[in-house]
């Protein structure tokens, strides 16, 4: 796979592979450290993200930023992306054909970033990245290893905003991520 960041961004910007491109303000490819050890994947951009062209910048993004800080990191230390790169109407979940159209872009991001740990934010990310349909309440908190990468499913920040009682479980997941990163870097 011949990929560079410039080519990937160009390809995402020019994409018309699904109907999501028709009403987008702009695509939201992802952002962060290009060689980050830790990557976050959500489902898709919302209204604020569509307007700014950046992932997780609304209320969910502010919570995610605080969670990243709580494990001793900054947003600039990680890479943040979504399954789909254009906003689904009314912030609905991406349809299977929409996700299928964008997954090659996400795979190219994996190849470029080469993360050691990926946090999957919510059921939609787990469905399309791990091909697992189980509820996030059953998936969260359990490590999955694929192709030498560790995946940690957890609640999407928007779910935590709707139901703050889940924040304790999400915090346990983030502490496990912090510990796994320490183990993998030999800093334990």
Q: Name the CATH superfamily assignment.
A: Uracil-DNA glycosylase-like domain
Strand content: 5-15%
Helix content: 40-55%
Largest β sheet strand count, sense and barrel closure: 6 strands, mixed
What integer is the average pLDDT? 95
**What is Rg?**
15 Å
Q: Uncertain spans, ≥5 residues at pLDDT below 50?
A: none
Could you tell me the CATH topology label.
Uracil-DNA Glycosylase, subunit E
- Summed up, the helix count is 8
Question: Which shape, going by the Cα principal axes?
Answer: globular
Q: How many beta-strand elements?
A: 6
Q: Kindly provide the name of the CATH class.
A: Alpha Beta
**CATH 2nd-level architecture:** 3-Layer(aba) Sandwich
* The number of domains: 1
State the order of secondary-structure elements, H for helix, E for strand: HEEHHEHEHHEEHH
Structural class: alpha/beta
Strand order of the largest sheet: 1-3-2-4-6-5
Distance between the termini: 35 Å
Describe what this molecule looks like in 3D.
The chain is an alpha/beta fold and 188 residues long. It has a single domain (20-181), classed as Uracil-DNA Glycosylase, subunit E (3-Layer(aba) Sandwich). Helices cover 44% and strands 13% of the residues. The chain has 8 helices and 6 strands. The protein has helices spanning 5-14, 47-52, 59-70, 96-113, 123-129, 136-139, 157-162, 167-185, and strands at residues 31-32, 38-42, 79-82, 117-121, 144-146, 149-154. It has a 6-stranded mixed sheet, sandwiched between helices. Strand 5 (144-146) and strand 6 form a beta hairpin. Helix 1 (5-14) packs antiparallel against helix 4 (96-113). The longest helix is centred in the C-terminal third of the chain and has 19 residues, at 167-185. It starts with a helix and ends with a helix. The mean pLDDT is 95.
